[in-house]
């Protein structure tokens, strides 16, 4: 039996937009279920995402939902998504698209440990790290 650990993000009504944006950047298969599909009686929730899951060709899984009724939106800095690897073109492409409309904290450039690294917050308020491993001489 196998298991896996996946990030699960919550949004204040923008889960569909965020997931579709991430799918546009990362590719893959996106499945979403709304509160309405599961019989939520509140019409205001009918089109909100109860559960969404993006499975990408790179093997990433990203899950997300809109906050359910009664759950407070308490954004914070306690989660960051990190993508790393040695496919420079792929990772620079992710950087270029994910930073659109966001705020770059650390530009994607060579760091003291030899890799290219950058950090940013995307337009949905999610923090990201990208590290491009460089071949060691």
Automatic annotation (TrEMBL):
Gene3D superfamilies: 2,3-Dihydroxybiphenyl 1,2-Dioxygenase, domain 1. CDD domains: PhnB_like (cd06588). Residues 11-128 form the Glyoxalase/fosfomycin resistance/dioxygenase domain. It comes from the Bacteria. SUPFAM superfamilies: Glyoxalase/Bleomycin resistance protein/Dihydroxybiphenyl dioxygenase (SSF54593). This is VOC family protein.
């Amino acid at each position: 039996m196998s298991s896996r650990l996946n990030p699960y993000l919550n949004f204040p009504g923008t889960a569909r937009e965020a997931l579709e944006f991430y799918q546009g950047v990362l590719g893959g298969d996106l499945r979403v279920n709304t509160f309405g599909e599961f019989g939520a009686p509140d019409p205001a929730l009918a089109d909100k995402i109860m559960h969404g899951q993006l499975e990408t060709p790179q093997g990433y899984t990203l899950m997300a939902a809109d906050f359910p009724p009664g759950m407070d939106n308490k954004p914070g800095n306690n989660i960051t998504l990190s993508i790393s690897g040695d496919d420079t073109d792929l990772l620079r492409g992710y950087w270029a698209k994910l930073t659109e409309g966001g705020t770059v904290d650390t530009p994607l450039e060579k760091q003291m440990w030899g890799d290219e690294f950058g950090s940013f917050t995307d337009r949905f308020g999610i923090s990201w790290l990208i590290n491009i491993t460089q071949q060691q001489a």
